[in-house]
Amino acid sequence: MGEAVRALREWQYDGAPLQLHPGDLGWYWRFGAEATAEAVRTWRRDGRILAVGLVDGPGLLRLAIAPDAEPDGELAHRMAADVTRPEVGVLPQGNAYLEARSGTLFRGLLLDGGWELDQPWTPLRRDLAEPLAGCGVRVEVTGPEGAQVRSAVQRASFDKSTFSDERWHAMAAGPTYADARCLVAYDDQGTAVAAATVWSAGPGKPGLLEPMGVHRAHRGHGYGRAITIAAAVALREMGSSSAIVCTESANAGAVATYRSAGFQQDPEVRDLRRRA
Fold it and tell me: Where would one find the signal peptide in this protein (predicted)?
């Protein structure tokens, strides 16, 4: 796992397509170290990791490929074969989804093999060299004593969320959380109204905002914009060069929130889908 996280950190750079980030593994760590290790797939040559995948739910694989390995035909063919053969243990038989936003050759092989384009996603980024204004609300960094508040806002922000105090502690015990911060925003009455987690990939590299949510009882008051600005500030303080996030294009409210917080919208990207 340490090797996979280090590889993902090395592959992050400004201007790159948004692909699997070390923070994605960090967020998955809420399920525990063993579950995270079981969900990670790596492709190697001569001991070097060339690609990392995260099985992030039934039938969904999220991928990152080393920038210098993207045009590697041998790697692309091997990965394409592995994700299409259930016996390999990467993806199950039947409906499957693949988030692979780099690796044009690899994507082309799958499309030629019958995969199709799935729903569009919108990547957004904010250059942290630019000035950052205050967010206008009180924001606190969550420590162990605040796990209950952080998890409660998460569950109130996302339908069917299973985030809990125990899962916050599991996530915080993971090695990637040393480069992360959980933030909670409060209204004038001291009620927790929004939350976000940010993940640094190291100084001078893009940092990830994942996830961000606003309590369903407190929407429409600008708290999404406020916590997003606070997230960008936190990443800047950790030395990140930019803040990145990706959301479903169909979620127009989320796209508008990030743009209102100074994020620039990049061209849409599409995942791949294999029908049963």
Answer: none
Q: Which fold has domain 2-121?
A: Aminopeptidase (3.40.630)
DSSP run (H or E) holding 53: strand 48-55
DSSP state of 190: S
Considering the domain 126-266 in this protein, what is its CATH number? 3.40.630.30
pTM: 0.96
User: Hunting for tokens 């340490």 — which residue is that?
Assistant: 2
The residues of the chain that CATH labels 3.40.630.30 are 126-266
Give CA–CA dist 120/270, Å, rounded.
Answer: 5
pLDDT at residue 232, as a whole number: 98
Q: Looking at residue 136, what DSSP letter applies? A: S
d(CA 20, CA 38): 16
Helix 104-112 and helix 73-84: axis angle, to 10°? 40
CB 219 within 8 A of CB 212: no
For 186-197, write each residue's pLDDT tens digit: 999 999 999 999
Residue located via tokens 């991928």:
63
SS3 266: coil
151 Cβ neighbours under 8 A, 6+ residues apart: 163, 164, 165, 167, 168
Tokens matching residue 258? 């990030």
Q: H-helix or E-strand containing 126? A: strand 116-127
Residue written as tokens 């961000």? 212
**Please, which residues have CB within 8 angstroms of residue 134's CB and are 6 or more apart in sequence?**
229
Q: Is the peptide bond before 206 cis (omega within 30 degrees of 0)?
A: no
pLDDT of residue 157: 98
